[in-house]
Specification:
Blueprint: H1 8-19, H2 71-81, H3 85-88, H4 97-112, H5 118-124, H6 126-134
Helix pairs in contact: 1-2, 1-4, 2-4, 2-6, 4-6
Region (Disordered): 27-67
Protein name: Secreted protein
Signal peptide: 1-19
Amino acid sequence: MRSHLIGVASLAFALASVACTVKTTGTGNPSTGTTDGGSKVDDDKPRTGKPSTGNETPPDEGGPGTGTVGCAGIIQCIANCGDNQSCTGHCGDDASQSGLQYIRALSDCLDANACNDDTCMQQHCQSELDACLADK
């Protein structure tokens, strides 16, 4: 059965890792005294040119959500990585936006239901798993 692609406990940990691998803007740099104050624009970089109005759209720098790998591909990557957490942490690097959305939904379901076996996943998260596996 498809749900046996990888152990649920390993899958849940890996999904959490992939689902949380998203570039954030404005984390600040304590050594230089920069902070972002919650801005949507990454203002931790040195400024050049005219001052920011705070309404600019940051350039697409690639990374999670800008690729073409669907949720099924992310699951396959996780399965191929086995217990290598460094490997699974990169399974979302080339993920599509929909791939990340389905992975987050599956991860959230597994967390919400405290699933740590296939029976729990099948009872509570089968629709999320099916949607994920259909996203190629």
